[in-house]
Amino acid sequence: MFNKIIKLGQKKFNKSDQHHQDNNNNNNNTSTNTVVRGSRTTTPAPSSVSNGESQTTAQSPSQTPNHPMFTTTPILEVLPLLKDVSSSDRPLLFMKKAHMCSCHCDFSDTLIMPREKEIKRQTLLELVDFLHSSSGKVNETMQSELIRMVSANIFRCLPPAYHENTGAPPEGNDPEEEEPYLEPWWPHLQLVYELLLRYVVSSEIEPKTAKKFINHTFVSRLLDLFDSEDPREREYLKTVLHRIYGKFIFHRPFIRCSIYNIFYKFLYETERCIGIGELLEILGSVINGFTVPMREEHRLYLVKAILPLHKSKGISIYHQQLAYCVTQFVEKDYKLADTVIRGLLKFWPLTNCQKEVLFLGELEEVLDATEPSEFQQCVVPLFTQIGKCLNSAHFQVRYFKT
């Protein structure tokens, strides 16, 4: 009986001690977490610095007892150049510079933190040159810290869309008339993307090692960034993702499937065409590399994900890239001509004459790659639609290339 009373007392003591510890942890989290407002992603906020001091500490995957510098908050400071230190000290200095560049600078005012901004810019330039140089040997630990720094900079909460700021309904806005949002801290962000691109294309980086860091999660978050309104960022993303697709063969099915899922989301949920053109441009290169005969998977995605893109109101933004992808399918497999032509006729615009002109131009490209046997299968519905175009009240449709 006495032993039971002692055990119960110990349990109550442990519970109260644990409750006290949980309260302390909650208080600490409340004081260190940063609230980030955004509308499209839920990625954690990267670390930021203000007045030369960092406000949050980012955990590094390369933290070890042998690297005590990673246990402290990164501070932007002038460090020795990589070329001025011995080869044995270079890896540790490289990681320290990468860890330091995880900090964000305040670009809301050009007069705020000018020294810290220049230090980070020069450090990023040095890291880019180091990867490009012949002496840029990067071991696995260095790669881990490098990708952690890249993730801390590029993966962020994107600003709200134009119509979300103005309160106007999204269907009432013309994407061509919207002013693109330009990232104010692009001088740093551009160098981070350039660093990532140099890392991916480097012949010194083995895919077997790099896949530990360039994994499916990283690629998926990279694809989410195509929703950025800054065209400069989307251009870099297009190049980086295309290089990843070419180098990491084991990522190819995942990248294709993820791109098609973005198309589905665009068609049936968001109707936001930002980034669709760049993704179609990547897909055009991918389709060009398909083997013949084409697999049923690719035929299915053509019907379910690519051809339905013709029904969007904002097709003029990405129609050039879409027409190229569709034509690539027909040139790869001539048997798909009937499927493509009937798909175009299915989504043929009824009242939008400018969109109808786009369809006629795409139809002409498809017919140039169509074999006579496939043409005969769709000749009746095709000429029925052409007859309607000849009777159109719009002169551009009626006299299209006559």
UniProtKB/TrEMBL annotation:
Gene Ontology terms describing biological process: signal transduction
GO terms for MF: protein phosphatase regulator activity
UniProt-annotated stretches for the region Disordered: 12-71
Comp. bias intervals (Polar residues): 35-71
Pfam families: B56
GO cellular component, one term: protein phosphatase type 2A complex
Domain of life: Eukaryota
Biased amino acid composition, Low complexity: 23-34
PANTHER family: SERINE/THREONINE PROTEIN PHOSPHATASE 2A PP2A REGULATORY SUBUNIT B, SERINE_THREONINE PROTEIN PHOSPHATASE 2A 57 KDA REGULATORY SUBUNIT B' EPSILON ISOFORM
Known role: The B regulatory subunit might modulate substrate selectivity and catalytic activity, and also might direct the localization of the catalytic enzyme to a particular subcellular compartment.
Family of this protein: Belongs to the phosphatase 2A regulatory subunit.
Name of the protein in its database record: Serine/threonine protein phosphatase 2A regulatory subunit
Organism in which the protein naturally occurs: Arabidopsis thaliana (Mouse-ear cress)
